């Protein structure tokens, strides 16, 4: 099964993740507090994450992410609500 490891306050927590789910939804499904002021619609940056490992296992950058200032050439900074999971990754919420 796919694992997403969340880094928060220096601690790591690995949880099971469904392929195709977003990083944000996976966090919420596992009671991991992650800000999402716009409700996960990709129109704010409160669910921004830093990808420490496994960027290649997160979906391609979306138009919403680019509109919010994410750089398609740098897949280490993403919006958690837009990153669809396709394999293991390690991420850290920015807020």
Structural write-up:
This protein has 95 residues and is of the alpha+beta class. It has a single domain, classed as Ubiquitin-like (UB roll) (Roll). 13% of the residues lie in helices and 29% in strands. The chain contains two helices and five strands, in the order E-E-H-E-H-E-E. The chain has helices at residues 23-29, 63-67; strands spanning 2-8, 11-17, 48-53, 77-79, 89-93. A five-stranded mixed beta sheet has the order 2-1-5-3-4, with helices on one face. The mean pLDDT is 96.
Please summarize what this structure is.
The protein has 95 residues and is α+β, with helices and mostly antiparallel strands. The protein has helices at 23-29, 63-67; strands at residues 2-8, 11-17, 48-53, 77-79, 89-93.
Record the SSE blueprint.
Elements: E1 2-8, E2 11-17, H1 23-29, E3 48-53, H2 63-67, E4 77-79, E5 89-93
Parallel strand pairs: 1-5
Antiparallel strand pairs: 1-2, 3-4, 3-5
